[in-house]
Every structure is written in structure tokens, then in C-alpha cells.
Amino acid sequence: MTVASTSGRRVRRLCVLSMHTSPLAQPGSADAGGMNVYVRELATSLAQAGVVVRVYTRSGRDAPPGPVAVEPNLVVVSVRAGDPDLPKERLGSVVDEFVAGVEADVLATGGTDAVHANYWLSAVAGRTLARRLEVPLAVSFHTLGRVKSAHGDAEPAARTLAEQRVVDTADVLCAASQSDAADLERHYAADPSRIVLVPPGVQHAFFSPGSRAGARWALGLGEDPHLLFVGRIQPLKGLDLAVGALAELGRSDVRLLAIGGPSGPRGAAELTRVNNLIAAARLGDQVSLIDPQPHHILSTYYRAADVVVVPSRTESFGLVALEAASCGRSVLAADVGGLRGLVIHGETGLRVRGRDPRRWAAAIDKVLGDPERAARFGTAGAALGSTYRWSATAAALLGALEQAATRTQ
């Protein structure tokens, strides 16, 4: 893995691909999640640094007509490619149409110095587009098919083969964490010299320590202990494990707030399964399923919580854990992926191995039963979170692209 340098050919215009989901979409709904935040905040930081950024997404049913000027230097463009209602699982069939639309707009608006693709579908499109435009390609996969399959969420062979082709040819492979970089090498034999660490940042204007009492008053919550889960409802994110841990905890005074909506082909079924688990454990009065919230509003929920639980099966990074820690809250996270670098066990929170609800309940009990420990976790977590900035994310990506542009001259 290399460290990005700021020397090299300047990147003044950047084409960003987010084919399957718009950065303007509400995180926590449909296919919108941490990646949407990443694309939006990184594009904003690049624009503020003087780079002209155009983000391309596929037109869905609710896509706004024409380009949307988000702020100076940043425009989001919806590209027509196939039926607006085409599900994500079938988007591979319209990649060529998407590429054609992006290329036409890029050429009509002054060209680009590089392409940054997000997720494997965009990476496939980006591979073709960058070759046609003769510019370097950077790819942020966000999740990897072989890693998901290894953790019980089987992905089609077509995806992993496509990822392998991109890994073999992209100029820059952006890793969100050291774990993400290791997965690229272990599962895809990626060239370490083309892997660059480009971790997400934190919008500190929103995600910073604040009053728990004030946050609870704003949300209309009582004084009982509150656990918080934030994420899309799909098997990968592990809401069922959070519910199971609450059941094992055996405390009628503890509440669980779960913010997010069903996502992906198994989302609706997972929501039904979670509701059945809640009913079977007689936790209806203790669990609140809350619709996805605007990103900045999440800071109020983080501050209101006693413990934020992140029970994902795998995470390339774990933005929820970082934002919660930045708000000064204890985080309990699965001992997987990028969460290992964000939750320092015994210092900023606790990592829990395995998926036994009893182990998670025991970890929750440790934090709820020791307010002084929880306070130490919160202080240390906020200090860690303060070191993550989107401006640094933007600088890392630009440095890597500029070096790549110099090599390909």
C-alpha cells in the first residue's frame, strides 16, 4: 500500500461515478447508506478545494430533471440508462448505456482529468470510460463481493469476476481502512503499490460531543438507558443481533432505537424477520423502529444514546461507529473489518467477537453498569474522531490521482 503524494499532474476536473445510488438520496433508505455520505462529502471537499466535480448517477423514478448544482464546483447529473425502476441486481445490463450518457456529458462540459468510481457497478463503467477518455481511474469498492460471501452474504460470480478485472487494471485502488487494503490483496491479489488509503472523514460541525439530556429532550425520550442501531435493514447489518442481545440482557428498562429502512432484495424479508423476533421476545414496548433520518439529524440520536451498537457481519470501514464516537458515545462493534481500527477495544468502546447474542448482552451490560467507563470511552472516542477530516480524504484521493496522471502521460 502506498501513501498518496501531493506532487504530480494537477487534477482540475473530476468525473465521479455513483451509478446505482445518488449522493442526494436519503441514507438508510433503499440502497442509500454510508457510501452516499462518502460520495457527497468527498465531492463537497474536492469542490471546496477548487476541483470542478460532476457526480453521475443513474436516473431513477424520483430523479430530479437535469443537472443539480449542489454548490460551486459541484454538480450531480442523472443519466438515463434503462427502466427507471430497474433493480440494482439487474443494472449490469445497462452499464454500456450509462457509460454512453456520462461520456456525452463529460465531453460536452469540458472533459475530465480523471474518473473516480464508487461500488463495483460504477467501477465496471469507470473502466470503460477512463480507457475511452484516456485518463486515470480510481476505484472505491466500499464492499467487496468475495468478502461478503466469506461472511455469509453470497454474491454472484459475475460481480466478483468484474471486480477482479477492475482490480487488475485500475490505476488507483482506494481502501477505506487497513483491513480493506488487506482484503484487496488477500481476496483479489491486488498490487500493493496501487492501493492508497482514502478513509472517510467526519463532518465535525454536526458530529461532536453534546448534551445527552438536551438530545433526549429534543427527541422526546425518557431517562431510561437507550441503545442505538443505525443502518439499513438487511442481513449484513445485523439488526437481528441487536434485538437478540436486548432479549438476552433481560432488562425491561433498556430501550433500543433502530434507525433505517429495508434495503436490497432481502430487505423486506429481513424487516419481517426482525419484527417477528421482537414479538417473540415480547420486546414491542422496548424497541422502536424509526424511519431513515437526514444525515445531520443522526448526531442528535447519537448524543441521546448510552451505547451505539454496530453488529455488522463485515464493514470495509464503519462510518456509523466513527460518527457515534465523534459524538462522545460508547460504541460496541463487531470484531470485523474496518471496525477494528475505529473501535479501540477497552479504550473507545468494546469489540465483540462472534454473533452470540449473549456475548453482546454481556458487553452492553458492562458499559451500562459502569458510567465512569462509558465516560472514558466517550472522551477517547471523540478524540479519535477529531482526527478524521473530509479535507484529508480529498487530499489523499487527489494526491493518488495526480501521481497516476503523471505516470500515464
Automatic annotation (TrEMBL):
EC no. given is 2.4.1.250
Protein name (database record): Putative D-inositol-3-phosphate glycosyltransferase
* Classification via SUPFAM superfamilies: UDP-Glycosyltransferase/glycogen phosphorylase (SSF53756)
Q: What class of enzyme is it?
A: transferase
Q: Which GO terms describe its biological process?
A: carbohydrate derivative biosynthetic process
Q: Which residues form the Glycosyltransferase subfamily 4-like N-terminal domain?
A: 33-201
Q: Which UniProt keywords apply?
A: Glycosyltransferase, Transferase
Report domain Glycosyl transferase family positions: 221-381
**GO molecular function list:** D-inositol-3-phosphate glycosyltransferase activity
Q: Name one Pfam family in it.
A: Glyco_trans_4_4
Origin species: Candidatus Neomicrothrix parvicella RN1
